[in-house]
Design brief:
- It contains five helices and three strands.
- By secondary structure, it is mainly alpha-helical.
- It has one domain: Rossmann fold (3-Layer(aba) Sandwich), CATH 3.40.50.
- A three-stranded parallel beta sheet has the order 1-2-3, sandwiched between helices.
- Helix 2 packs across helix 3.
- The relative contact order is 0.14.
Length: about 160
């Protein structure tokens, strides 16, 4: 019980945000997973791996590249907030299909954001063209030709 409190609730209490809400059902497709909060330790490891991956590429290429963290299925934005707080990423985006979750995520971001538009929550669906529109929007915000690479590790991805 203490472990759950430390991993889920302490983050919210410290930053005065809400990433603890659980939401199931009422999505565009009944096969979509619901939203459950993620453990803080899992987020921190994911962010560390993301930044290490970027570092491994930049050592052999362009040192002026911008670092962009994109959390697909971002829900209420906990991974994005943690990525933002590391100051290792120039831009951080949380993307979710559910507009209600994105709306709450934007409220969370307003409470923690100190660097203009560097932290944003957006609505998009990875199964249709809105994802390309999203990447175009990110590219416009950053002001350059960016290349995206992802590693998606979710229970849903393991089904296929």
């Amino acid at each position: 019980m203490i472990q759950i409190f430390r991993q889920l609730d302490m983050f919210d209490l410290k930053l005065k945000v809400n990433t603890r809400t659980i939401k199931y059902g009422k999505f565009a497709n009944n096969d979509y997973m619901g939203y459950s909060p993620v453990y803080t330790s899992v987020c921190k490891e994911m962010i560390r791996l993301s930044h290490d991956y970027w570092l491994s590429g930049v050592r052999y290429s362009n040192y002026d590249m911008k670092t962009v963290f994109v959390d697909l299925g971002g829900g209420l934005g906990k991974p994005a907030i943690l990525a933002y707080e590391t100051n290792k990423f120039d831009y951080v985006f949380s993307v979710d299909i559910d507009s209600d979750l994105v709306s709450e995520c934007q409220k969370n971001f307003k409470k923690v954001s100190k660097r203009g538009n560097k932290l944003q929550a957006l609505v998009a669906n990875v199964e249709d063209s809105t994802l390309q529109i999203l990447f175009n929007k990110i590219n416009d915000l950053i002001g350059g030709d960016i290349r995206f690479s992802f590693s998606i590790r979710t229970p849903m991805a393991l089904r296929y």
